[in-house]
User: Which sequence fits this backbone?
């Protein structure tokens, strides 16, 4: 009989941040001078944590941030695929990839939808500067609904501070920071690195959560079979969103022109330009 348990490189040590033993590859210093570990099983530990929360009927929202080209999309795609595999549910980019608010509405209208969402470019879909718009308030309500369903949201965006404040305060459970491949946390590894922190809240809706370090780890490259499909779907969704913005801008201009015509005669309006 063969042992199917995965083998992890590194020394088995106690990670005091999470209270369990993990395989340590190396240590590095954080910005605040604290020494943290890079663990070879950190990625699998994050997947297991999210799967367990789902089995306990708990929603998980993972916010993946970092500069362009650091691998946010690669990490998000792998998380979605591996979580779906362990939960034995499907993950279909054509249905579960969320770029704009309409994508989220369409999925929530499906009673048989998969419980996993990949929300790409979260700053576009749920930007903090849109917090007072009616559509954005509706999305906050939808996140409350998804929490009751125990859905899993994997969100990619450059910075969590660009994100909708209400959702950031109440719904983001894990904040993952990706580092560029040309700036690895430890030498000798060319793959992407991430740091994972968990949120701790005293009371919902009152203040920003505190973020406590869990572990740093390594993540895989893009799943080869999904990379081309992902880029194609993303381009289509970007074009659709841009067309919607242009149509909205033209509508707003037309409404403004009608208001101006009521204020002054049409001949004077032309002369003012």
Assistant:
């Amino acid at each position: 009989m063969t042992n199917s348990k995965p083998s992890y490189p590194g020394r088995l040590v106690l990670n005091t941040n999470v209270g369990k033993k993990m395989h340590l590859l190396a240590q590095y210093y954080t910005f605040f001078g604290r020494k943290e570990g890079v663990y070879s099983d950190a990625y699998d530990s994050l997947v297991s944590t999210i799967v367990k929360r789902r089995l306990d009927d708990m929603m998980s929202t993972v916010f993946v941030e970092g500069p362009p080209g650091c691998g946010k999309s690669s990490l998000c795609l792998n998380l979605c695929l591996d979580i779906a595999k362990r939960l034995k549910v499907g993950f279909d980019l054509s249905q579960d990839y969320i770029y704009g608010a309409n994508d989220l509405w369409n999925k929530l209208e499906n009673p048989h939808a998969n419980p996993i969402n990949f929300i790409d470019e979260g700053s576009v879909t749920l930007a903090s500067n849109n917090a007072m718009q009616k559509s954005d308030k509706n999305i906050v309500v939808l996140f409350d609904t998804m929490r009751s369903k125990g859905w899993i949201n994997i969100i990619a965006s450059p910075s969590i501070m660009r994100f909708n404040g209400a959702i950031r305060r109440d719904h983001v459970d894990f904040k993952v920071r990706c580092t560029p491949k040309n700036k690895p946390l430890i030498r000798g590894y060319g793959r992407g690195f991430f740091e994972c922190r968990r949120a701790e809240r005293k009371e919902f809706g009152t203040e920003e959560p505190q973020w406590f370090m869990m572990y740093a780890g390594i993540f895989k490259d893009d799943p080869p079979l999904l990379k081309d499909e992902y880029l194609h779907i993303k381009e289509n969704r970007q074009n659709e969103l841009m067309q919607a913005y242009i149509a909205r801008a033209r509508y707003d201009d037309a409404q403004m022109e009608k208001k101006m015509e009521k204020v002054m005669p049409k001949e004077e309006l032309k002369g003012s330009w």
Notes: The chain has a mean pLDDT of 81. The chain has nine helices and ten strands. Strands lie at 11-15, 20-29, 35-39, 60-65, 97-98, 116-119, 152-156, 174-179, 192-200, 210-219. The CA atoms of residues 8 and 177 lie 22 Å apart.
